[in-house]
Backbone:
């Protein structure tokens, strides 16, 4: 084991990398193999219909891409396997989101919060914690920065205040 640790310290390893090295020590041949597990990050826009979002103006309402989550994903994909689920655009229900979480098995779930979606985020967080209490849940967005009480829900593990790209990357690499 000491040999392995000394050898490992001389290598530069990255997440997701499989490294195998054969070497000779005192006439014995050793093969070291290490699988570096990749963290899985799931970024979710909670379920919401056009009717819920725009009320009587739903026929003229529009969908827009979750740019905040896309920025986070662009940074996080250098450190982890990342998936974005836009439940609004895909017209997913909470049950659909639950199935996706079960299949993907994320380590961390992030959601961008608006005052109009906070209760939906809490519901998704509750679903996640019922599936696996070890999944870490992160909330971010301008509303979290303005009102830090939004992250005081028992199912929320972290809140990202201010610009989230670097903070989120630091969180997943900690």
Residues:
């Amino acid at each position: 084991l000491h040999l392995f640790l000394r050898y490992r310290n001389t290598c530069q390893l990255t997440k997701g990398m499989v490294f195998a090295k054969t070497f000779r020590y005192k006439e014995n041949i050793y093969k070291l193999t290490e699988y570096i597990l990749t963290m899985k990050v799931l970024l979710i826009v909670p379920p919401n219909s056009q009717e819920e979002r725009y009320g009587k103006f739903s026929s003229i309402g529009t969908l827009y891409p979750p740019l905040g989550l896309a920025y986070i994903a662009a940074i996080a994909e250098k450190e982890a396997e990342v998936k974005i689920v836009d439940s609004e655009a895909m017209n997913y229900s909470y049950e659909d989101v639950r199935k996706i979480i079960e299949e993907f098995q994320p380590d961390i779930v992030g959601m961008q919060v608006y005052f109009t979606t906070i209760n939906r985020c809490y519901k998704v967080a509750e679903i996640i914690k019922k599936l696996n209490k070890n999944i870490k849940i992160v909330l971010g967005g301008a509303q979290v920065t303005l009102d830090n009480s939004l992250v005081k829900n028992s199912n929320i593990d972290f809140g990202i205040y201010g610009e989230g790209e670097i903070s989120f990357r630091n969180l997943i690499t900690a």
